[in-house]
Specification:
eight-stranded antiparallel beta sheet, alpha+beta, two-stranded antiparallel ribbon, 8 helices, 10 strands
């Protein structure tokens, strides 16, 4: 499917060294853009048709998923009851017995829940409809260093810095970063095994720029860290027009 935004609220082509973290605010934690309706339809279809590939939740992460659901509801749908009306007019029932399913239907963001096990944070839950060349089934219940293999430039030094960063995240003070990835097609669901490296030898031939706005947030009660991903996809030709307006 081709679901595109017409703009990105930051410059995705400005390089930043890893991990590229910047302060954010709770008011700017979640985004809603012009691709909302299309992305939400795609999310619901993936949840229905490929649920084992896009959703995983360890029983120990259930309280964190419930806390995350409450946080998103209070921020995006204040005054909610047992259902909410989305910006595209669709009504969503609040099913607290399946918090990640409900989150999938509420906002464009994907969510990964990471909890401290020993000295490392481990991926204990996720709703991941729009993976950028990785598979949830391969990363579930794995620590940070394993999750980022084989990301270029993610060495032991970066891994230690990222773990210290996770340890220092405070409730109410989210952080954010972005990336820029070139793809030949606009499909949002791009799972890929870690053993099947993506060919980026000729980015100039790619038709679409995919950029993820990623945020890190500490849940105040369960103390889990939430990694949220808002995916933007723009046609390369459209991006060049934005850079060089007539």
């Amino acid at each position: 499917m081709t679901i595109l935004q017409t703009s990105i609220p930051y410059d995705p082509l400005t390089p930043r060294p890893l991990p590229g973290i910047q302060p954010a605010s709770m008011d700017d934690w979640l985004h809603c853009d012009d691709a909302f309706a299309g992305q939400m339809q795609r999310r619901e279809a993936l949840l229905r048709e490929r649920r084992p590939d896009v959703l995983a939740l360890n029983p120990g992460a259930e309280p964190a998923a419930q806390e995350l659901l409450d946080m998103v509801l209070h921020q995006v749908y204040p005054g909610f009851s047992d259902h909410v009306a989305r910006p595209d007019g669709q009504v969503v029932e609040i099913d607290r017995t399946h918090p990640l399913d409900t989150l999938c239907r509420l906002v464009q963001e994907d969510f990964c829940i990471l909890q401290k096990h020993g000295d490392e944070h481990v991926l204990t839950g996720a709703i991941l409809c729009f993976p950028a060349s990785w598979r949830l089934t391969e990363k579930f219940m794995r620590p940070l260093i394993d999750i980022h293999i084989p990301v270029s430039g993610y060495d032991d030094d970066i891994a230690r810095r990222v773990q210290r960063l996770f340890d220092g995240i405070q409730p109410g003070r989210p952080l954010w970063r972005f990336n820029a990835l070139w793809y030949e097609d606009a499909e949002l669901h791009q799972p890929r095994s870690a053993n099947d490296r993506r060919d980026v030898s000729n980015p100039g031939a790619a038709r679409f720029l995919r950029s993820e706005r990623q945020t890190l947030l500490r849940l105040p009660e369960t103390r889990a860290v939430v990694f949220s991903i808002h995916t933007y996809v723009l046609e390369a030709q459209h991006l060049r027009k934005m850079e060089n307006p007539a």
